[in-house]
Amino acid sequence: MAEPGQAEISMEELALDSEPSEQHRSLPAQPRQDDNWGETTTAVTGTSEHSLSQEDIVRISKDLDNSVGLDCKRYLNVALSVILGLVVFLTPLAFLILPHLLWPDRLRACGTACEGLFISVAFKLLILLLAVWALFFRPPRAGLPRIFVFRALLATLVLLFVLSYWLFYGVRILDSQDEDYQGIVQYAVSLVDALLFIHYLAIVLLELRQLQPFFSLCVTRSTDGATQHYNLGQLSIQRAAVVILENYYKDFPVHNPAMLTASKSRAAKHLAGLKVYNVDGPGGNNAAAGIAQSQSRAMIAAAARRRDSSHNELYYEDAEHERRVRKRRARLVVAVEEAFTHIRRMQEEEQKAAPSDVMDPREAAQAIFPSMARALQKYLRTTRQQHLHSMESIQQHLAFCITNNMTPKAFLESYLTTGPTLQYGKDRWLARQWTLISEASVTSGLKDGAVFLLKCIDFSLVVTTKKIPYIQLAEEFIDPKSHKFVLRLQSETSV
């Protein structure tokens, strides 16, 4: 039984004890990358794999400036929305209060019908307040590069509508000091009714219009070719980009640059040619030049034959890699099952032990983690997933499985199968800020054949738009009598 103090072993120490695999021998050794290397790097070189050029520094500073501008723009939009909302909700109340403040002695008495209108205005304003809060004052899902056209149009319409009511109120009621207070109340009620109809128009334009699908969008990741298809309605390009990114984090498998590095190194090895040098130089005799030329031709032909047979090397290399993965997986499954069996024995012993000796799930996870750590680390290195899982996250997941009484298969599912991006921590996401690249205006609607890109630092999503075809259904009548038949038997049969 492993002691709790043994859980302090790290994944790097286990890597030193284990023998390096064949694929790591073939690849050049890479320096150990610190998790905070981006914050501590002070030198800029031209040979480092993670070096930064002057153009990259300028681009990063520009991105920071853009992010600050987006935050200011977001807060400005919220402030303008709050100011417009206050003007809209205070206008009907001002229509009802101003006559009592300016000419209270000249107003006619308000009857029962007028008092009923007070109740109508109060409830309509309450309903409008809740409706506006539910539709407009929701947490923003993303920061758009351009304004939302329909939302800006609705805000302009509301502003013009309120100004028109104020203009009519100032000319016909304030200047003449109208004595008919019931008419003033009805005027305020008409304003609230019109605002409710504008809110209904906002629901149609912002929510209902996009429900019916009109376009099929094919989203392809530029690095590994992962593809998904989404059906969307009549949206602008920037809003369609937001919908695609929201689905990207849950539908696409996490981007693994380690797999791309392995494929590039393998391709470079297969495509490597032979270099031929003329040691005699250009001033050598003709015989030596002819021999060198014939030798170079023979070596080039040999290199061509080797490239032609490179598919065999690729086949056996992939087969060897699959065999190694299956071997590591089998060892990992056995190690995890033994660890969970040990957990069950510990739980049975805890039921008989004193309450002070009972361990919590976190301590239990730290106790059994060393028994499976080496097998898990070898499997993650073989499948090139070691950068996606830290030792702390693995122990947290193990404690979560122990707390909820989950099986070893449920624990292993997160490591045996590559999950979507949201399954991993935010520090493992390689795409933090996206850039929308489109030839058409991002505020224009989707069209058939439109192509735009969603680009981040390491890869991009290529989006192709296709219009869903018009479907024509035709009805064909089938006569019920056509399914009936008569079976006639002959009386004389052969015996």
Q: How is this structure best described in words?
A:
By secondary structure, this protein is an alpha+beta fold. It is 57% helix and 6% strand. Strand 1 (215-221) and strand 2 form a beta hairpin. Helix 4 runs antiparallel to helix 7 (181-208), helix 5 (112-135) runs parallel beside helix 7 and helix 6 runs antiparallel to helix 7. The protein is extended and about 105 Å long.
What's this, in brief?
This protein is α+β, with helices and mostly antiparallel strands.
Keywords:
495 residues, five-stranded antiparallel β-sheet, disordered N terminus, 57% helix, 5 strands, 14 helices, extended, alpha+beta
Our measurement of the CA-to-CA distance between the termini, rounded to an integer number of angstroms, reads 84 Å
Shape: extended
Category by helix and strand content: alpha+beta
Strand runs, count? 5
- H/E series: HHHHHHHEEHHHHHHHEEE
* Strand order of the biggest β-sheet: 2-1-5-4-3
Low-confidence stretches: 1-55
Oligomer: single chain
Please report the number of helical segments: 14
Percent of residues in beta strands: 5-15%
Give the overall pLDDT as a whole number.
76
In helices, the fraction of residues equals 55-70%
**Radius of gyration, CA atoms, in whole angstroms:** 36 Å
Largest sheet properties: 5 strands, antiparallel
